[in-house]
Amino acid sequence: MDLGLLAVAISGVSVSAPLIASTAAPALAIAFWRNAMAMGVMSPFALLRGRAELRRMTRREVGLSALSGVVLALHFGLWLPSLSMTSVASSTALVTTTPIWTTLFLRMRGQRQPWLVWAGTALAFVGVLLVSGVDLTTSGRALAGDALALGGGIAAAGYVLLGSRVRRTVSTLSYTYVCYGTTAVVLLAACLADGASVGAGYSGQTWVKLAALTVAAQLLGHSLLNRVVRGLGPSVTSTAILLETPGAALIAAVWLGQHPPVAVYPALLVILAGLVLVVLGGRGPVAEPSQLTPV
Question: Which of 121, 140, 239, 278 is most buried (CB neighbours < 10 A)?
Fold first, then answer.
């Protein structure tokens, strides 16, 4: 049962990048609606079932949850524009380097990691350099997209670390409600400051895609990952999440007709191999499956 649910979850997060790339709306607006719609679905549960816990949250817990939401908004603000600048395959591979940055941040805080983690980190960095080198020969715009996706992965690591601290004392529902609410507010402010339309002129097809993105990636994908991690464990779940990269690349190839240069594919395999080593070597502190890949 858990393996079947895991397959559905991976399929849900894999469709995220191709859906975003094909949606005719500003990147910041897509990110806003994804979080705002998720908030709308979560509100009845949070305000009825979780109201007591929300009231009991300390200022520190609320503050860290809100800060996590700001960092998550930064993640979306960097990653989503990259999907229109470089290929879905490259962007997804680079943004899912989150475990590497999480490892480095933990090391800066004095936490030592096994040699397997550092070997995986080095291998994944080689893959990143290979992808960037290939995209540089394609265009400067593609390379800039790679940089934004990589920045999105770094921001996601901050989101993971902040969330892991709050989740020690706060339930997933209460934490994500405050976090996603903050993310939606920050992204709405960014849309208004940038002059990006948050609904005017959107076609019916665009609204359908925004709803599908919210259901597939935000609600089905991440909710099911939270569900199966208890039975399958963090190592299996975190490693399976890495299948999002080839899944998104395949969907983009079939649905959007995106075929990156052939040299990109070996580089993606190198990144994936490095990430597998990082996840398997780090296990506990590195793997936070409920927040590992916020795409």
Answer: 278
